Amino acid sequence: MKGKSLPADLLKRYLADTCTEAERRKVDEWYFHLDREQEAAPHFFNEQELLQRIRADIAHTLPTPEEAPVVPLKRWWYLGGIAASLLLLLGVGYLAFNRQAADPYTASVPDTADWTVHSNSTKKIERYSFPDQSIVWLQPGARLSHPAAFMQSDFREVRFAGEGFFEVVRDTLHPFIIYSGTLKTQVLGTSFNVKAYENDASYHVSVLTGSVAVSTPASSSRKEEVLVLKTNEQATYQNATRSLTLEPMVAKTEKKLPWQPASLVFNDTPLSEAVIQLQRAFQIKIELTNQALNTCRLTVDFNKQRLPEILEMINTLLGSTYELEGDTIRIFGEGCSD
User: Fold this and answer.
1) Burial of residue 134, with CB atoms counted within 10 A of its CB: 0-12 exposed, 13-18 middle, 19 or more buried
2) Could you give the domains of the chain?
3) What is the pTM for the complete model shown?
């Protein structure tokens, strides 16, 4: 579709919802590439360019004034239909532009009907699997969307807001791209954390294994900025200035973040003592909401497992549950008998 125009009658059938499914996909792809053809950065709607492009495509299919000095009555209906099509297309574009300006989460990748949308509405860290078997550990409130099938495109594209730890299956032919507002994170296969809450002044991308490329879109006043992060490096993106900075992550000898793996051994250990060890291993506070939980004892080995995996195992063993609020984990349960 790139670089090609479309006949006006096809645009008219598309808007009248009388075109075939193949024609619909053709128009969708054309519309998607309207002002991406000269950009490597995420898509932004340009109303003036869209107007010129649609006028050019429609004019290309109509005769010149010299060729058609007289327009029959039916022709006026045809021209009216084209004008209505033009207005409807511009109306859709205008709404898309305003929505993107209000919500940067939708600015990078256009909405499509067959995308899967998911939000973590629980108070737990949730494990989510993508179509390629890549996974993400979603913090409460995080949300994402992605195509129902990745392999139909050259890229594995995801829109994301909130915080999540990604473990991406390696595929050199299909780069994995995450759009968070105007921040773009691209990988081939690695593990990393993205913290990109919409109302925060800054976003953070932290790499646990492999390498990650983060970039900001080009503008009239500046070129696209790209940083390549290696293991144990973190990029900070300032939304106001669209600037990127690189810094070392927490040293391995210091406390671990919740998504970094840890090895812990509990041998008939009271839950109250296990909680102390977990708090020492991870940068998080853990509370037992019922004093009867202190009598519970754990015998289990955790070998290089992440905090949400450890919590799920403990809850399975004790019949308890937990909730995450900010930097505090609260464990609920009836306790254990002596």
Assistant:
1) buried
2) 8-102 (no CATH), 115-248 (2.60.120.1440), 262-332 (3.55.50.30)
3) 0.63
